[in-house]
Design goal:
Blueprint lengths: L3 E6 L2 H13 L6 E6 L2 E7 L5 H11 L2 E4 L4 E3 L4 E7 L6 E6 L5 H15 L13 E6 L6 E10 L10 H11 L7 H12 L2 H4 L6 E4 L5 H19 L2 E2 L4 E3 L18 E3 L8 E9 L3 H10 L7 E10 L6
Parallel strand pairs: 9-15, 10-11, 10-14, 14-15
Antiparallel strand pairs: 1-7, 2-3, 2-7, 3-6, 4-6, 5-6, 8-9, 12-13
Length: about 325
């Protein structure tokens, strides 16, 4: 069977994806890719493509498969559906390795399965920011734009923890369920859907609000920063704010200095747009203190806060 491609829209990265699919995806069985809004659905002959072959392909492409062995399109024909996220692209297409008589069936089956999982989306994860808000500076007249993917329940193991809570718990422990691309793809997609913010990202520097412990800071944020900067063209500023020594956690404390164990390389931030990332927004104290420090006299041009989750504790601001 010859590969057949129907393109509605594409860009440079999309053309690269299509070429790599043609060059590297095994063609000894039926498969169909549906790619749109940087999401993919792959319908594949399960008697031909085993977990290892698919896993290797997704990893090599930098794609994030959100459910291996996902919902079956047809158990009668042994056709499985896999869904996930690509790096951001404008590509909108169908890729068929099927007989022409089967293509309409695949289109209908994939669209039907996607709609049952969520209208117009292939993956049921937050790829748009739920929270957009501003924080006032403690020391200046600055206002900082902040974004968070979704709500967060602050206590690990609580009875009503959501899937997203569990995702953040794993991120804090350095154990993403779907590998290191899991948080990267979610943040990448959400950032690119904020047009005004996305336009500033190529010249921005990404850094984190460091964890209290040096080793926690390394395994939680180091790989994340590198991969997100590679995906979005930002400067990796992970090493621009160093943890000189570990301190006790001050999570939830509002009136203590949280920067005393940090060494900040202020020269890296002069005149720059700064994306300041943390896993969770609680009281905002750590963010305000660090944002004020970076945007002081002759400092950063702007500081924007980006968080995985925003604490929904009603006692917090």
């Amino acid at each position: 069977m010859a590969l057949h491609v129907e393109i509605n829209r594409t860009d440079d990265r999309g053309r690269e994806f299509l070429q790599r699919i043609e060059d590297t995806f095994p063609t000894d069985g039926e498969f169909v890719f549906r790619i749109a809004e940087s999401e993919f659905a792959l319908a594949v002959s399960s008697n031909v493509y085993d977990y290892y072959r698919l896993h290797q392909f997704f990893c090599n492409m930098g794609w994030l498969a959100m459910n291996y062995g996902g919902p079956s399109l047809s158990r009668k024909g042994w056709i499985d559906l896999y869904r996930g996220l690509l790096p951001w692209t404008q590509l909108d297409c169908w890729v068929f390795n099927t007989a022409p008589t089967r293509r309409a069936w695949y289109k209908g089956a994939i669209r039907s399965k996607q709609n049952r999982c969520g209208i117009g989306t292939a993956v049921s994860v937050p790829i748009r920011f739920k929270h957009r808000y501003q924080l006032s500076s403690n020391k200046t007249f600055n206002h900082y734009d902040c974004y968070a993917l979704d709500d967060y329940t602050p206590t690990h193991g609580v009875r009503y923890a959501t899937w997203f809570d569990q995702f953040i718990y794993r991120f804090k422990q350095g154990h993403s369920l779907f590998g290191p691309y899991e948080p990267v793809r979610l943040i990448e997609h959400a950032l690119m859907r904020e047009e005004t913010l996305a336009a500033r990202l190529p010249g921005a520097i990404l850094c984190v609000i460091p964890a209290a412990d040096y080793h926690q800071n390394q395994y939680r944020f180091k790989t994340f920063c590198r991969l997100l900067c590679e995906a979005m063209g930002m400067e990796n500023g992970f090493d621009a704010i160093e943890v000189e020594y570990s301190r006790p956690s001050m999570c939830g404390l509002m009136y203590q200095n949280k920067l005393h164990n940090l060494r900040i390389h202020y020269d890296r931030f002069i005149g720059r747009d700064v994306i300041l990332f943390d896993d969770v927004y609680n009281t905002g104290t750590g963010f305000r203190q660090l944002a004020d420090a970076l945007s002081g006299y002759d400092g950063a041009a702007s500081v924007t806060g980006v968080f995985l989750g925003r604490c929904i504790d009603p006692d917090l601001p």
